[in-house]
Specification:
Layout: E1 11-16, E2 19-27, E3 36-44, E4 56-61, H1 66-82, E5 84-90, E6 93-97, E7 109-115, E8 119-120, E9 126-127, H2 143-146, H3 151-154, E10 173-174, H4 179-185, H5 193-205, E11 210-220, E12 225-234, H6 241-248, H7 269-277, E13 278-286, E14 290-297, E15 307-308, E16 311-317, E17 320-323, H8 330-343, H9 348-355, E18 364-372, E19 374-375, E20 378-379, E21 381-386, E22 395-400, H10 422-426, E23 436-439, E24 442-443, E25 454-463, E26 466-474, H11 476-480, E27 485-490, E28 493-499, E29 514-519, H12 521-524, E30 525-527, E31 530-531, H13 544-564, E32 582-585, E33 592-595, H14 658-668, E34 673-674
Helix pairs in contact: 4-7, 5-7, 13-14
Length: 687
């Protein structure tokens, strides 16, 4: 059958008696991979004595129909029940499919293989003939049916038949020029915090409960001095070797089914984020049974024609971690570790110390980035650890050195902390703040932004057949800082902040202090893995759903302002607009608890739990339910002294009396449903 039998990508059709069992994908395939394996025999495992000395790979199901999926399960169930080995012979290649473990979910199966001889044709090229007869639908290459290779397959380093035949250094190269790493970093060129957000997103997708972000000094033997290093450490579920390869390679197949709990979509987040922050990045990740170390480095690849990405993987054996020879040889692991120690500030002892942070049976991922991006003779970022025991304003932070504000149409405010303070940004980054984030060693305190607004109102609409739900309210702090706008979230992550809509764009005072919160996940997900979000996840694409959303938001924001604050009322003495309710989050169960109106949350301790006053309950009590997409943003703005409003009496801009003004407000409330009746006390005229 000639060269047509060698698959151009790692997909394998598994067959028995000339009938297909299931299409599979081969992970860590041999150098030559026949595209069809026809099982010639199934024998008890006890009769095969040479399996431990052979190289191995893995098959995972890639069914094209429910029938394939069913046959895959039946086949593995038979091997498991009979403790037997399936043998497939393809002339010069012989594969042994091992029975899965008893607790296996059949997501993959291990295969060991050997090459008995090489068959050469008259043209001098190697051929590996298939004994089976594939069905008509598999006559062409698999890529004809599936759109070509995925990025994971393109970047895969093939396991050789014998490790000594391939020099270790040749096994670390992806087919990309090293300058591509610098190109990836340009994705977040406009705003460096977008790069940090990519790393935070990965921790959230890994279901981490704690995330530590800090910049500290570390000695670099190559620089001959101490240099700053950014670390991002979480306690998520970690990654196995194949997932680490996918992380450091260039993109992967976009998901066909939308997962509302995941933010990652494009397969480039880690690369674009890490390479924007610095030139070199080291990843240490651990699962219950494995540990991997990966090195993505511009310094290592200077002057090379292809990109080298060293990876060292281990698997647990008893209480110890040993090199995983099922995915790499001992020689390759030794070479990769030597490269990492040479081009990074880490030696084997420091790597061991970092890995020791996981402790026994702990999982998670640690990312270290150094040779940070520069701003002239300084670094783009500046940092401090703050004052121990101080207020939130004195806690450590990481700032953008330029303090430059992001461009927004109609914006006049010069005080937008989240544009250059990572602490302020992290306080509002997630719609549902469950993960505990520590910045420079101190906890980032989260509060739901919409729950701390005054005169909150809700508006529901239908855009292109999809329901949207908006919450609007007034913030005294944002009023003092001349801010306003809508916070737009997608898959629970902040994409745009302070987006001015409607009259806010053309009038600096229109809508002053008005904040909106909306989740647009359903609207901006087009289906089939397509989304209306830029791959940097800092803006939306210019598409019809977004254009209609802007128009709808503008109409609702203008209506809210006209009905409530068009005739702006101020009270002598600088009384503040109090939020409708006070809220506090338990540091154990991470649930939000509503407190009595007017309670001073500043009197609560740094760490507060449900059993404490004034809630005096337990973590088992359900959290107050809020409609999907509404009022679940955490935010705690950096507070400044609020200056008294210099006005003699409570008046409106048109000189209308309070009674006439209140009557106008009552007549104008049509589409927006008020959550709280009447004006707050601070808005009412004193005696």
């Amino acid at each position: 059958m000639g060269e047509a039998n060698l698959a151009p990508d790692p997909y394998v059709l598994l067959m028995k008696d000339h009938k297909p069992i299931c299409r599979t994908q081969c992970l860590n395939p041999p150098a030559e991979l026949p595209k069809c394996w026809s099982l010639s025999d199934i024998v008890p495992r006890a009769r095969v004595h040479i399996l431990g000395d052979l190289p191995s790979c893995f098959l995972s199901p890639a069914p094209e129909s429910s029938r394939d999926k069913c046959e895959w399960g039946r086949f593995l169930t038979y091997l498991q029940k009979k403790d037997s080995v399936g043998i497939a012979k393809v002339k010069s290649c012989q594969f042994y499919i091992l029975p899965p473990d008893k607790d296996s979910n059949f997501s993959h199966v291990q295969v060991v293989y050997r090459v008995e001889k090489t068959c050469s044709g008259n043209d001098g090229q190697e051929h590996c003939e298939d004994n089976g007869s594939p069905s008509d639908r598999f006559q062409g290459p698999i890529e004809d049916h599936h759109g070509g290779n995925t990025a994971t397959e393109t970047c895969r380093r093939h396991q050789p038949i014998a490790a000594k035949q391939v020099p270790p250094s040749e096994k670390n190269y992806a087919q990309a020029h090293p300058s591509y790493l610098e190109t990836l970093g340009q994705v977040h060129y406009a705003w460096i915090f977008g790069a940090i957000a990519e790393l935070v997103d990965n921790s959230r997708d890994a279901e981490a409960t704690r995330l530590d972000i800090s910049i500290e000094e570390i000695y670099s033997k190559r620089a001959g001095k101490e240099i700053p290093m950014l670390s991002v450490i979480d306690d998520g579920h970690g990654m196995i070797h194949q997932e680490v390869e996918k992380m450091v390679c260039f993109g992967h197949k976009k998901p066909e089914v939308d997962d509302p709990d995941r933010i990652g979509r494009f397969g480039v987040g880690f690369k674009t984020g890490a390479m924007r922050l610095g030139r070199d990045a080291l990843v240490i990740t651990q699962t219950n049974d494995s540990r991997s170390i990966a090195f993505l480095s511009q310094s290592l690849n200077e002057g090379k024609d292809n990109l080298e990405i060293p990876i060292v993987s281990y698997r647990r054996k008893g209480q110890f971690m040993e090199v995983d020879t099922s995915v790499q040889s001992e020689a390759l692991a030794k070479y990769n570790l030597k490269v990492i120690k040479e081009f990074s500030p880490f030696d084997k002892y420091l790597i061991g110390a970092k890995a020791g942070l996981f402790r026994e049976n702990r999982t998670g991922t640690q990312i270290f980035i150094w040779n940070l991006d520069e701003w002239g003779s300084q670094y783009c970022l500046e940092w401090d650890r703050g004052l121990t025991g101080g207020s939130s304003f004195h806690k450590g932070d990481i700032l953008i050195r330029s303090r430059r504000l992001r461009s927004r149409p109609g914006q006049i405010s010069k005080t937008v902390f989240l544009d250059y303070s990572i602490r302020s940004y992290l306080e509002v980054i997630f719609l549902v703040p469950r993960i505990r984030i520590y910045l420079q060693g101190s906890l980032v305190k989260s509060r739901p932004l919409a729950k701390y607004l005054n005169q909150t109102s809700e508006a529901t609409g239908n855009i292109m057949g999809k329901r949207v739900h908006l919450t609007l309210g007034r913030s005294q702090l944002e009023f003092e800082q001349a801010n306003c706008g809508i916070f737009l979230y997608w898959h629970g992550r902040l994409i745009e902040a302070y987006k001015r809509v409607g009259g806010m764009i053309h009038n600096g005072d229109w809508g002053r202090g008005v904040i909106g919160v909306i989740d647009v996940t359903d609207l901006m997900n087009e289906g089939n893995g397509r989304v209306g979000v830029h791959n940097a996840k800092q803006s939306f694409l210019d598409c019809e759903p977004y254009a209609r959303l802007e128009a709808w938001l503008g109409a609702k924001a203008d209506e809210y302002w006209t009905n409530n604050f068009e005739t702006l009322k101020l009270k002598k003495g600088g009384s503040l607009y109090k939020p409708d309710h006070e809220w506090v989050q338990c540091d154990k169960c991470r649930k939000w608890r509503m407190l009595s109106s007017g309670f001073d949350v500043k009197t609560l301790p740094e760490e507060w739990f449900c059993y404490m006053g004034p809630f005096n309950g337990s973590c088992e009590i359900p959290e107050q339910k809020v409609d999907r997409g509404v009022i679940t943003v955490s935010a705690k703005q950096n507070r400044q002294d609020i200056k008294d409003v210099d006005d003699d009496a409570m008046i409106n801009s048109d000189g209308i009396s309070d009674e006439d003004s209140n009557q106008t407000e009552r007549d104008g409330k049509r589409d927006l449903k008020r959550l709280r009746k009447g004006l707050p006390r601070a808005c009412k005229k004193g005696p």
